[in-house]
Design goal:
Elements lengths: L1 H4 L9 E2 L2 E2 L29 H14 L6 H8 L8 E2 L15 E2 H14 L3 H13 L17 H13 L14 H7 L24 H11 L25 H17 L5 E2 L7 E2 L1 H15 L5 H10 L1 H7 L1 H14 L11 H6 L8 H13 L40
Antiparallel strand pairs: 1-2, 3-4, 5-6
Helix pairs in contact: 2-4, 2-13, 4-5, 4-6, 6-8, 8-9, 8-10, 9-10, 10-11, 10-13, 12-13
């Protein structure tokens, strides 16, 4: 999804009149003033996507059975503010968060999904979920920043975080509205293809958005960034109008995606003033969404296209791109170590700290067990916790969201 799943750099969202426009593909300029932390994945400027790409990388490693480096996990937990929220990147984690630290729902939700999967971080994920609940909008959804209008991508990635943390997303309500209520309001009628919009425009109209649709299909199904294929393979997805349930809206979104990739096998990125070109990140997200909604067979065509064409994009884009491809492989039962002749796992591992060996992981586990006679429960009283409350100027902010797919930093 835009932020949602594209390879993780984040693309600029202009908020006009309180409603953010769909993400625009953009890559943050490298900044020599930002030193790359040793525990961070990727070699590019982390200012706009540090926590996002780290979370995806750790989640992907866990998904394929790789034990992440301890310092990589420590870097992520060290980015959390005392109130539980995460910003895209904090250059100095030793400094308490203040009003200048722009925390956001997407970074926070991605971190929750990664840390929940790794286990042993209940304190961190608990505080993050509490913060996410505190910034839920009255329509049941979430915007990128607290106070921002709800959008399909942000709402969906938060749904994934709630699920990962053991919550029932639709039981998390604000003024009686659930996340599903917010997503259903963004679903277009079948006459318009059954897609989801990112947000309503200034006039309240909805426009189909493939990035938002890939995200919202998973959100409507209550799934996160890592999704298993549907247990029962379904027929080609169809859209049905009327009082749709979340599952029916997900089917409509999947039908839109299936139609969008039917001709060429991929989604297309249409940037203002630029020639249309394949959208690799959103295509990977579409594979996950199609497989989660109707089974691996439904994603066969775009998966084959990615296996043939995505290697160069992933090398250029970095860890979050490799993670997206690993998620696509996982959702379809494909071996990520033999993905179109590429070993995605080895390539992802090479972009960050070397993973722990089985022996090292076992030693670390034993140390935890010996500590005070019990395992470390992820207590919040470590060096990365500081007293301070992150206040965010929510509306009117521009932000780089990956082309949850669209551009990305190495």
């Amino acid at each position: 999804m835009n932020v949602r799943r594209s390879a993780a750099a984040l693309a600029a969202v202009a908020v006009v009149g309180g409603a953010a426009a769909p993400a625009v593909a953009a890559s943050p300029s490298p900044s020599p003033s930002v030193a790359k932390p040793s525990g961070l994945f990727g070699s590019g400027d982390p200012t706009y996507d540090g926590v996002w790409r780290q979370s995806l990388a750790l989640l992907a490693q866990h998904t394929v059975g790789v034990e992440p480096a301890a310092k990589a996990v420590d870097w992520l937990t060290g980015q959390q503010c005392a109130n539980g929220a995460f910003a895209a990147f904090r250059a100095d984690p030793a400094k308490a968060c203040d009003a200048k630290v722009m925390v956001d729902t997407n970074s926070t939700a991605a971190a929750v999904q990664a840390l929940a999967a790794l286990g042993g971080h209940e304190a961190q994920t608990g505080k993050a979920v509490t913060w996410l609940k505190s910034v839920q909008n009255k329509d049941g959804g979430w915007g990128y920043t607290p106070g921002g209008a709800s959008d399909a991508n942000s709402t969906s990635v938060v749904v994934g975080a709630l699920t990962a943390a053991g919550e029932k997303p639709d039981a998390v309500r604000k003024d009686g509205k659930s996340p599903s209520d917010a997503l259903l309001k963004l679903a277009l009628p079948c006459a318009d293809g059954g897609a989801f919009a990112f947000q309503p425009d200034k006039a309240g109209k909805l426009a189909a958005n493939a990035d938002a649709t890939a995200a919202a299909v998973l959100g409507a199904l209550g799934k996160g960034l890592v999704a298993e294929p549907a247990q029962k393979t379904a027929a080609a997805p169809t859209c049905s109008d009327g009082a749709r349930t979340p599952a029916q809206a997900a089917a409509g979104g999947a039908a839109y995606l299936a139609q969008a990739v039917k001709k060429d096998g991929h989604l297309t990125s249409a940037m203002p003033g630029a020639t249309d070109q394949p959208d690799y990140g959103n295509t990977a997200d579409a594979v996950v969404a199609l497989a989660a909604q109707g089974g691996a067979q439904q994603a066969r065509q775009p998966l084959a296209w990615l296996e043939k064409n995505a290697a160069g994009w992933a090398r250029q884009s970095g860890p979050a791109a490799y993670a997206q491809l690993i998620f696509a492989a996982h959702a379809t039962g494909t071996d990520p170590r033999r993905f179109g002749g590429q070993d995605l796992v080895a390539q992802l591992n090479a972009t960050g700290p070397a993973p722990q060996s089985k022996a090292t992981a076992q030693q670390d586990s034993q140390k935890d067990e010996k500590k005070d006679g019990k395992k470390d429960d992820g207590s919040p009283f470590g060096v990365w916790w500081f007293v301070g409350v992150c206040l965010v100027a929510g509306i009117g902010i521009g932000f780089l969201m990956s082309g949850r797919r669209k551009g990305q930093q190495l």
